[in-house]
Specification:
Blueprint: E1 2-11, E2 13-17, E3 26-31, E4 34-38, E5 44-49, E6 55-61, E7 70-77, E8 80-87, E9 90-98, E10 113-120, E11 129-135, E12 144-149, E13 154-160, E14 164-171, E15 180-186, E16 193-194, E17 197-198, E18 202-207, E19 213-220, E20 224-231, E21 240-247, E22 257-262, E23 268-273, E24 278-284, E25 293-298, E26 302-306, E27 312-317, E28 322-328, E29 337-342, E30 347-350, E31 356-360, E32 368-375, E33 378-385, E34 391-399
Antiparallel strand pairs: 1-34, 2-3, 3-4, 4-5, 6-7, 7-8, 8-9, 10-11, 11-12, 12-13, 14-15, 15-18, 16-17, 18-19, 20-21, 21-22, 22-23, 24-25, 25-26, 26-27, 28-29, 29-30, 30-31, 32-33, 33-34
Protein name: VCBS repeat-containing protein
Amino acid sequence: MSLNSELELQADNLLVFDYNNDSKDEFLIKKEFRYYLTDQKNTSYFQINFPDESYMFLSSLNIDNKPPEELVFRCKKDNNIWIYIYSENNLQLQFKTITTGKDIKKPDGWDGDICIAKLSDINDDHYKDLILLVNSGFDMMPRGVMAYDLKHNCELWHFWIGGSPRNLYVFDINNDGKEEIIMSTTAVSNGSVVNGFSDNKSYVIVFDKKGGILWHREIGGVFSDALCGIDSLENKNEIELVLVECEGTGNKSEPNQILILEGKDGETKKFIRSGDKYCGMAVCDINRDEKKEIITGNTDGIIRVYSSNLDPLMIQDIGKSVNLIDASDLDSDGTTELLARTVDNQLLILNEYLQEIGIYSPQGNCKFDVSVVRDGQKKKLLVCSGENKPYRFSLLSVTGPNMFPIISKYNFFIPSVIIFFSSF
């Protein structure tokens, strides 16, 4: 396996998504107050110009049920948040969503924002509605989820909480033929309590389409982060929620927990505590047994693989705090590779046996981030590095023969090959 640079460019930000719904990702490149949509060869499709940098990209959504997708931006103006929806570079719709922002704590200026947008037909009128995850910092309000009717240009409902929203999913988790809205939270501990939900605890909350709570569960305490995944772990009709408690206070005496909850009612199916503090999670069939495994990083330096019953399957001691970023078939050989980042800013690539097959370190130990880019059946890596804007982005293709032949999952006598990639 080797990584080869296909494209390098500088930008304030670069977003990756499948604009044409053809299994090939495009790039939305931000430079100051201009956005450029390009393919993976940096061929431009179109450009969108805004008056200033307060206009930020929020999401790419298929609102009208046909490609290409619509581009959703948000803009903060005078403690309000506006949404702008573009079809290509043509403005289709604009509306005000948040009108209750108040600057109550330092630093100056209301610090609220909309951080995630999803779609669902909330009111069963056969038109998609917008589901927005709303967050704020020390100003604390509002935080929660709101639904907006795009056809009639009006808010349908909102539900505010004390904690800071983390994940947002729209999924039929109880097999009733209707989509539910699932939100997990972070316990930021600013002293906010709204509708019975405190920001001293982390939760997972499941709403029906009218904004009513179907069920909720407390996950962790002060400064904990409820990382959520939704899947059918044993490929049956049952849907489970995988909740990983991450972080928590430094003097926490017991390890973080992993819970597998019933999608229909939140009842605990399985539960385990291990390691110190979990850092990242992936749910995938890493050992090709037609069941999903749960993979985590941890501050104790150990990557752990659990079965769908939370039985330990494999561990790999990295020797330092490690955050699991992604699990996917990078080189199209039919097996899963893991991407993980260590506390000293190294990117590790591991094979399905948790053996190290690649290490990347940026020059000068600068900050970096990595995204997986789809190119049909192939995958690429987009590495962002640098301390200040504009950042450097490198698109790296994954090539080379399959060094690890398909063998029994019980045979671990495979030569480990470490490949050092050239740094910037």
